[in-house]
């Protein structure tokens, strides 16, 4: 080998490494636990009706990573990252939780973020290359705006891209939605995925034009009857207006069917929800 060429190889290698280090994002990652270990720990805790993971198991879900962070005194969030190291800012899915921590502690003895179906669903979403934030607040209506501000300011250092955000929620009516929209927090949100929840006409909710909607309606259960009827109207009106809307209608299902059942239909619904979020945030 020509000595000159030999010398150039040793010059090139450190330059290449230097360029790689410059291009890498300086994310400040906390200590995390794998989804497999986190789920095993939560499954070992007694006293919970919903003590099974969701039936969907996206490839690599068990290797996604989670950390519990305190963003304000006694205000916690679980943050879920994809398994692989982040090379660039990553889309964010915020799981809107309208009920307080005391609600969950009173009924099950643990926060919702420790429910195995929540853990497993968050891991499924993270496995598709998204960061998932699951809050645990005493007063959600007051803390959720602060959480959104935290995602905007502190999120980028954790690998989040606040400009690519979706909201996901399930269960009871999302009572905080009108307030969040009135404060302008929905303007940067690309998509809203609703699992058997929604709002009534009296809530005066109008989604921003750039927010796409996925609504999964479970037809059984007296609590959801009025909400189901009005959300059907919302879906029809949006489709007539040409607004991007996906509708999955399950007239024979009760709310939380995805937490309680393990069959192909449930897996298909959850897969469509995850694919919806991924497709909107990858644009």
Describe what you observe in this structure.
With 283 residues, this protein is of the alpha/beta class. The protein has a 9-stranded mixed beta sheet, with helices on both faces. Mean pLDDT is 88; it is low at 1-24. The protein is globular and about 45 Å long. The chain has a single domain (27-281), classed as Rossmann fold (3-Layer(aba) Sandwich), CATH 3.40.50. It has helices at residues 3-23, 35-43, 101-108, 116-126, 140-153, 177-182, 225-240, 257-260, 264-281; strands at residues 33-34, 65-72, 75-81, 90-95, 131-136, 160-170, 189-195, 212-220, 245-254. α6 links the parallel β6 (160-170) and β7 (189-195). The protein is built from 9 helices and 9 strands.
Topology:
Layout: H1 3-23, E1 33-34, H2 35-43, E2 65-72, E3 75-81, E4 90-95, H3 101-108, H4 116-126, E5 131-136, H5 140-153, E6 160-170, H6 177-182, E7 189-195, E8 212-220, H7 225-240, E9 245-254, H8 257-260, H9 264-281
Parallel strand pairs: 4-5, 4-6, 6-7, 7-8, 8-9
Antiparallel strand pairs: 1-2, 2-3, 3-5
Helix pairs in contact: 2-4
Quickly describe the structure.
With 283 residues, the chain is α/β, with parallel strands linked by helices. Helix content is 38%, strand content 23%. The chain has helices at residues 3-23, 35-43, 101-108, 116-126, 140-153, 177-182, 225-240, 257-260, 264-281, and strands at 33-34, 65-72, 75-81, 90-95, 131-136, 160-170, 189-195, 212-220, 245-254.
Overall CATH architecture: 3-Layer(aba) Sandwich
Q: Quick one: CATH superfamily? A: Alpha/Beta hydrolase fold, catalytic domain
What Rg is obtained from the alpha carbons, in whole angstroms? Answer: 21 Å
- H/E element order: HEHEEEHHEHEHEEHEHH
CATH fold-type name? Rossmann fold
How many E strands? 9
How many strands, what sense, and barrel or not for the largest sheet?
A: 9 strands, mixed
Q: What spatial form do the alpha-carbon principal axes imply? A: globular
Number of domains as seen in the coordinates: 1
Per DSSP, the total helix count is: 9
**Cα separation of the termini:** 49 Å
Beta percentage is 15-25%
What topology, given as strand order, has the largest sheet?
A: 1-2-3-5-4-6-7-8-9
CATH class: Alpha Beta
Structural class: alpha/beta
**Percent helix range:** 25-40%
Mean pLDDT: 88
- Uncertain spans: 1-24
């Amino acid at each position: 080998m020509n000595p000159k060429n030999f010398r150039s190889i040793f010059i090139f290698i450190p330059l290449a490494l230097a360029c790689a280090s410059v291009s890498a994002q300086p994310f400040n990652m906390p200590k995390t636990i794998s989804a497999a270990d986190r789920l095993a720990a939560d499954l070992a805790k007694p006293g919970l009706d919903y003590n099974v993971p969701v039936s969907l198991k996206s490839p690599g879900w068990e290797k996604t990573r989670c950390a519990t962070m305190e963003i304000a005194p006694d205000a916690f969030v679980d943050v879920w990252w994809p398994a692989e190291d982040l090379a660039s800012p990553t889309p964010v899915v915020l799981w809107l939780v309208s009920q307080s921590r005391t609600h969950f502690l009173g009924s099950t003895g643990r926060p919702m973020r420790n429910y195995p179906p929540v853990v497993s669903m968050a891991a499924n979403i993270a496995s598709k290359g998204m960061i998932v934030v699951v809050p645990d607040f005493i007063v959600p209506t007051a803390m959720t705006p602060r959480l959104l501000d935290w995602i905007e300011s502190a999120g980028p250092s954790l690998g989040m891209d606040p400009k690519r955000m979706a909201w996901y929620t399930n269960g009871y009516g999302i009572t905080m939605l009108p307030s969040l929209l009135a404060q302008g927090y929905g303007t940067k949100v690309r998509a809203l995925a609703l699992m058997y929840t929604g709002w009534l006409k009296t809530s005066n909710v109008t989604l921003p034009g750039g927010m796409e909607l996925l609504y999964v309606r479970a037809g059984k259960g007296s609590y959801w009857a009025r909400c189901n009827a009005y959300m059907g109207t919302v879906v029809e009106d949006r489709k007539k207006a040409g607004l991007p809307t996906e509708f999955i209608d399950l007239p024979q299902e009760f709310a939380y069917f995805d937490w309680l059942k393990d069959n192909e239909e449930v897996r298909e619904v959850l897969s469509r929800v995850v694919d919806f979020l991924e497709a909107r945030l990858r644009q």
